[in-house]
Amino acid sequence: MVKQALLDVLATWESMGAPYDLRGGLLKDVRGGGDWLEFYDGTDWKPVELNFFIRTEDERLDEGRYIADLIEAYWKIKVKRLEYDRAVCIPIVYGTDPLAYQWDLYTAGWVSSTHRLWHRPTSLPVGPLHGWLGEQLGSPRCRASHYYTLHGWPGEQPQGRLGLPR
Length: 166
Known about the structure:
Blueprint: H1 2-16, E1 21-23, H2 28-31, E2 38-40, E3 45-47, E4 49-55, H3 60-75, E5 78-84, H4 86-95, E6 105-106, H5 123-126, H6 144-151
């Protein structure tokens, strides 16, 4: 599948008259070259390399390393592993111009690597902590604070308030 995609890219460049080319890696048997995928920019051959920002605070470190290993093993594309915590990753990934080409992949996530106050924290993906939650048109308004009233506020043990089961 990836090999065919690369061949399709080559065909598109050719039809456009672009001076670009690819060789090596998965295309080694068709286009020649070495074991790793290389890109010709019109003047020089350069190794194709992905900049992969891998977060180090939690399981994303092992996951990122594993994904990088798979990309190199199966797609024959070199991966530059940039292993940093969120203080480095977030400003670069979310705060820089994509044309600056500082990153290609990122092990992002919903968590900020802090202690969870509830076993099932629903407020993060659902809505603001104290604002209005999403609702069906015409239904009564529900606030995140209603959830906390039923299931406990930060630092409290859930009590099954209002006679509802936990």
